[in-house]
TrEMBL record, chains A, B:
The keyword Hydrolase applies. PANTHER family: BLL6422 PROTEIN, FUMARYLACETOACETATE HYDROLASE. InterPro entries: FAA_hydro_N, Fumarylacetoacetase-like_C, Fumarylacetoacetase_C_sf. It holds the Pfam family FAA_hydrolase. Residues 83-323 form the Fumarylacetoacetase-like C-terminal domain. This is Fumarylacetoacetate (FAA) hydrolase. GO terms for molecular function: hydrolase activity.
């Protein structure tokens, strides 16, 4: 199943089921008012959602409408927690170069993960406000999972049963600030403004065999002002999503609707390009001796879309956003 | 005004107004269903809440009942964000000794702040579940503020107008894990299980002249198994709450209900004692040559209560909790 969220004035928006081909949608609020509630009550509502999705697919839902992704909010406009890993080791190694720092202790054997703000997610076509171009505005293409309630100390082997949805993420980052915050040990805060999400949150079966070993085996196409930044595969995660969930739940329970991110999708093969500009910049430095790519400027356009290995568009829909100066902030 | 939250099966609980002497309460759900909603709609609901509080104080509310703090949830059982500073420099300096590490860059001139989980706060009498005593279970007594909507890049000078409520916090910490997480640069995650709150969230006027210069000039009495750990003053914050709010809002808006913490209350005067065990332990090491105080064990009782400088009980009520082994986790 594919789910989207339209605005209705509430903090959680209203729930839609979207057809497999992403062309049509049906209001599902009679089953659950919003996606957060659906995840909270998953076992109870899933059969009803599946029946409605089947009817939508069969073309027998009179109330079906055209799906307009430009109207979509983030599938979960707010979530109980947003915990973002850094599971692609290639990304971490390049970031060590970018920040000119020594490797993170135990980086290859224990996941790193930061707690992000989860109250103010942006939809796939929303403008993205920033205070200053001097902060090093960057994009970060990722995959993520939405879990239902996960008990404290749940092991990785039991975690797959809690993965209800898969999502596609742009975890906007401010690199200049991040380089200052990281050595302070309290994690990223000012370096992480609101995070954006592709229009559709989907059940794992929508990925078919590309949901494999707790990873999304999809290619994340990333464009800046229409130019390709990269198309890296989600397969190279050193830690699977179940392993990231177990890491997150080691000392706390995760309430239903918690989102766990992969960190920036990154492949060892340079031909894959990058899913963030910081990586692209450090690759230029390493391979060509100088950084050519600037960070983002106000007015820049960023597009992201996952694709299946055969080139078909992925299940999450497309993100198409512009970087803008935050309202009310002096130039 | 003093506010408390009782359980009603919802994630946000139901709103009570509590009398100044903390003995009586009245259901306020006809004005706002819960405290989060009240903070979100503060300008609209505040006059109605104030009128009901006045009637409760005057003894003319027929529906008033005895207030039972043992039934209270955290005033906000969940919040949009929980951002915790470390504004007492004395604490930071002692922690550098405790973790045997070099000082945090710019610690005395730029606040440090971590993003905590905000979906699963504990009430003042709730048992506090942990996975293992080997993680270095510690308490951290703090003050905090609850803000309404704060726009991105709001300066400190404009931040006081956004402080709606003041709260008292026990920011439970796992010190063994924290010492591992801090050098990794992604912040505290496993080191920070659910945070606890005193029963009452209060408007700043409840502190009288002890709400001063954006700080809570109260003494935080902390007991472990009935023995005094400390009674440090909230006055010594190097950064005021408005400065912490401005730090948090530098690159993001804060949605209404966001909680900003002071970090562990700590005074340079050793006679004040400590508001966490890690501090007490490092003071023992520095002053007596050896650590005598162990971290917390299952069954230990932790009490916290703020007091006015003249010794009267503070406005937040008392926290009285036990450390327990998490259900379902093998010994």
């Amino acid at each position: 199943m594919k789910f989207a969220t339209y605005a209705d004035g509430s903090l959680d928006g209203r729930l839609l089921i979207v057809s497999r081909d992403q062309s049509r949608a049906v209001d599902a609020t009679a089953i659950a008012p919003n996606l957060l509630t659906a995840v909270q009550r998953w076992r109870e509502v899933e059969p009803h959602l599946a029946r409605l999705a089947g009817e939508l697919e069969a073309g027998v839902v009179a109330e079906a409408v055209a799906f307009d992704p430009s109207l979509a909010l983030a599938p979960l406009p707010r979530a109980p927690q947003w915990l973002d890993g850094s599971a692609f080791l290639n990304h971490g190694r390049l970031m060590d170069h970018a920040f000119n720092k020594s490797p993170i202790p135990d980086f290859e054997t224990t996941p790193v993960m930061y707690q992000g703000a989860s109250d103010d997610f942006l939809g796939p076509h929303a403008d993205v406000p920033f205070v200053s171009e001097d902060d090093g505005i960057d994009l970060e293409g990722e995959f993520g999972v939405v879990v239902d309630e996960v008990a404290m100390a749940t092991p990785a082997a039991a975690a797959p049963d809690h993965i209800r949805l898969i999502v596609q993420i742009n975890d906007w980052s401010l690199r200049i600030i991040g380089a200052r915050e990281m050595p302070r040990g309290f994690g990223f805060l000012q370096a992480k403004p609101s995070t954006s999400f592709a229009p559709l949150a989907v059940t794992p079966d929508e990925l078919g065999p590309c949901w494999c070993d707790g990873r999304a085996d999809l290619f994340l196409h990333v464009l800046r002002n229409g130019e390709r930044i990269g198309a890296a595969s989600g397969r190279e995660m050193a830690f699977s999503f179940p392993e990231l969930i177990a890491h997150a739940a080691r000392t706390r329970r995760l309430t239903a609707g918690t989102i766990i991110g992969s960190g920036t999708v990154s492949n060892a093969d340079r031909a894959a390009g990058s899913s963030c500009l910081a990586e692209q910049r450090v690759i230029e430095l390493l391979d060509q001796g100088a950084v050519r790519t600037p960070f983002l400027s106000f007015g820049d356009r960023v597009e992201m879309q996952a694709c299946f290995p055969d080139g078909r568009p992925g299940p999450f829909g497309r993100m198409d956003q512009r970087v803008v100066r935050a309202a009310g902030v002096p130039a």
